Amino acid sequence: MRVCVIGAGYVGLVTAAGLADFGNDVICVDINKSKIENLKKGIMPFFEPGLAELVNKNKSRLSFSGDISGSVKKSEIIIIAVGTPALAGGAPDMKNFWSAARVISQNLNDRKIIVVKSTVPPGTNKELSVRLAGWTGRDNFDVVSSPEILRQGSALKDFFNPNFIISGSNSAKAGKAVAALFRGSKIKKDKLIFTAPETAELIKYAVNTFLALKISYINELANLSESIGADISEVARIIGLDPRIGPLFLKAGVGFGGSCLPKDVKALLYLAASKGVATSVLASPLGSNKIQKQVAVKKLTRYLSSLKGKKIAVWGLSFKPGTDDMREAPSIDIIAALQRKGAKVIAYDPYACAKAKAILSGVQFSLTAYGALKNSDALLILTEWSEFENPDYDKMKKLMKRPLVIDGRNVLDPKAARRAGFEYEGIGRK
Ligand code: UGA
Fold first, then answer.
1. What is the mean pLDDT of residues 31-44?
2. Partner of 204 at 20 to 30 A CA spacing, among 173, 309, 378, 405?
3. Is 353 in the active site?
4. Start-to-end CA span in the chain (Å)
5. How far apart are CA 114 and CA 110, in angstroms?
6. Rounded to the nearest 10 degrees, what angle do helices 261-274 and 197-228 cross at?
7. Band of the pLDDT at 430, cuts 50, 70, 90?
8. Mutation pick for ligand 1 pocket among 211, 232, 288, 388 (CB with most ligand atoms within 8 Å)
9. List 4, 28, 260, 353, catalytic entry
10. Strand stretches in 244-362, DSSP E
11. Is the pTM of this model over 0.90?
12. Which of the listed residues 118, 260, 323 should we mutate to test ligand 1's pocket, taking the one with most ligand atoms within 8 A of CB?
């Protein structure tokens, strides 16, 4: 198929490269000219494991362009994958989505399928059909809702091995075409979900809000575990054996972040409020997460009594490992709280420092993990990068003023840390 993907963000770029890998001819377009120029040179706008290689491997079928109109005209399938970030009140900002729709409407030279990959409020696909018909006065298009469920850091794996592929359309023919497009050659038929657009749209919010709930649930239990001497890692492992609960997204830590979970919980609440639907459970992750982000700060204060003038080394800044993305990263609020209490922060992250520098002020950055530890009063781990797992404790001890570790992601082995002479505290475990 000839495919045009609008938006060269995480979803758009991974989708474009993946569809090219399936053998389609793909043009990925974006309004950001410098992003497109860099992509033409093979420079990715963000770090995602394996993406640069996949783009490079499919060079013959994947091109990048700033000419959205021309690219739409040339294509049979148009995929909208622009960002829909949260506005101040929680509603998603649909500005880029509707301007992409407008450009599509002006270039419907023959029959096309328009696929909505962007995360949008339920009802948007229907509204898109109505607006396109109004703008063009024609019906030479079909709209299919196919929200993306991939995670940053494992986006390629998720694209090629999805748990399900959603195809939400009022046109059975277009729905089937889109399912076939994303199925590639390997994915089993039973993973293809054909449904109504509104259901497809709600599934996306439902997944992310449930994940936010699951993480908040385990985080609150972790805090309780500490006060009764239980071990949350054990609790999570064992309750995860119950198939009604499942083992994933039960890792306690300093809170969830990223561009999706916080944004989609807010968008779902906004939608519910606009429909007059009462929410309590659905609203709970936001407050819970706010509290959780302060847990590590409280722990540090307990050990160091005052943080004034204390030097705190931070390992890990991105919202999770496998990405350099700093959007809504817990490190932002945690570091701000440390600074408000008078602490000096020196931070290290293997990939996110460049993006973090633009967001965090008053923070010193280290090029190495050990470099950050020099004369520090404590180490705080905020992202579970695998390189932090088995550190050289002797080296750390020589560098630090006080061998104290607050492990906000439970990456270290508590016994090994204590054996090495460290004061160690994780989240919800002994
Ligand atoms: C999330 C969803 O997992 C994807 O399915 C969805 O497609 C994506 O949003 C999206 O809407 O585009 P992502 O934001 O990449 O993916 O990251 P997650 O892996 O969900 O992690 C989110 C946050 O939760 C991270 O800060 C992570 O550290 C935290 N987390 C995750 C925990 O604290 N504990 C866990 O057990 C799992």
1. 96
2. 173
3. no
4. 56
5. 12
6. 120
7. confident
8. 211
9. 260
10. 311-315, 344-348
11. yes
12. 260
